[in-house]
Amino acid sequence: MDVLHWDGTISVKYFRIGAFAFAQNWENHNSGFPPWSWVCPKHHWLASPEEKGYLSWEKICISRPNEEDVDQISQIDTREEEISCPGNEDVIDDAILVQSSNRELHYYDFHIVYSSTFRVPVLYFRAYCSDGRPFSLDEIEKELPACSAKELSKSKWTFITQEEHPYLKRPWFKLHPCGTAEWMKLLFLSDAAKPKFEVVLELYLLSWFSVVGQVFGLRIPFKISN
Amino acid sequence: MAAAAESPSSVRKVVVHLRATGDAPILKQAKFKIPGTDKFAKVIDFLRRQLHRDTLFVYVNSAFSPNPDELVIDLYNNFGFDGKLVVNYACSMAWG
């Protein structure tokens, strides 16, 4: 495939290959984080066999740092309160990814599902507290980093929508995918050395996730991309 | 790997090149030095102010978009080449 004329999308077959590569790289380089797993639903008769399956990353705690969190898996300097530019009142929201905690924390489930309409991965997610009560979008919005919350208030129905999970048939939130192909194309085609298609395939989901993960303030250790 | 430029105060500075992609305007001042201990958010905010835009798509080579909390020196060590960190930006980021 000619990378120069690539439209930023991938086929369902390449999504599956890329998903496995992503999950494998993640596990190899990310000893601090739970692994992604591939879920293959058995009774999904509407999809053809090669379309079945999605990536799952569940019960992820995303919490804001405070003094008690210093001994947790932390990638940031919790002593420092950073003001990003003069006059900007917002403190940068640093999200710490923790695996377990005794505190009342908020949990997220993330699913990466292929969209055959847009031919790109789509992030479905939901949030809930430890007793299982699901969060509304308003409650989730309060926890997002400042720039995500701003984006949400600016473009409420084109950024995050609620719809039926394509496999689980329950309402989940999803990040709208229709701009995805365009920025995936930018990500890969701006390198002076145009990448081989095999490299694109191997890195596609990692690159994609480096963008969508920022909506939630997630930091991807970039060891994986090297 | 070439070393980042060092200033008299011995805070290691990183040379950053800002590169317009897509239909983004090219900046008059596209190269500057920033302390390695600064967060990437400073680069993003500089871009926002120069371009008068809130929503920017910012990424480095190897098709990676760094979290704003990353330290510039870490990004340079992983993605820099030829003594500089190239930061690409585009204005056409859209979600839906």
Tally of separate helices of chain A = 6
Q: What is the number of beta strands of chain A?
A: 7
Rounded mean pLDDT of chain A is 78
Q: Shape of chain B from CA axes?
A: globular
Q: Which stretches of chain A of 5+ consecutive residues score pLDDT under 50?
A: 65-91
In total, how many beta strands of chain B?
4
Task: Tell me the strand percentage band of chain B.
Answer: 15-25%
For the biggest β-sheet of chain B, the strand order reads: 2-1-4-3
Task: Flag low-confidence runs of chain B.
Answer: none
Number of helices of chain B: 2
Structural class of chain B: alpha+beta
Radius of gyration of chain A: 18 Å
The largest inter-chain interface, given as chain pair and residues per side, is: A-B, 45 and 35 residues
Helix content bin of chain B: 10-25%
* Class by alpha and beta content of chain A: alpha+beta
- Helix-strand pattern of chain B: EEHEHE
Give the SSE order of chain A as H and E letters.
HEEEEEHHHEEHH
> Over the alpha carbons, how many angstroms does the gyration radius of chain B reach?
13 Å
Function (chain B): Ubiquitin-like protein involved in cytoplasm to vacuole transport (Cvt) and autophagic vesicle formation.
Protein name (chain B): Ubiquitin-like protein ATG12
Pfam family, one (chain B): APG12
Organism (chain B): Hibiscus sabdariffa
Keywords for this structure?
heterodimer, A: 226 residues, alpha+beta, 7-stranded antiparallel sheet, globular, B: 96 residues, ubl conjugation pathway (chain B), isopeptide bond (chain B), autophagy (chain B), Ubiquitin-like protein ATG12 (chain B), Ubiquitin-like_domsf (chain B)
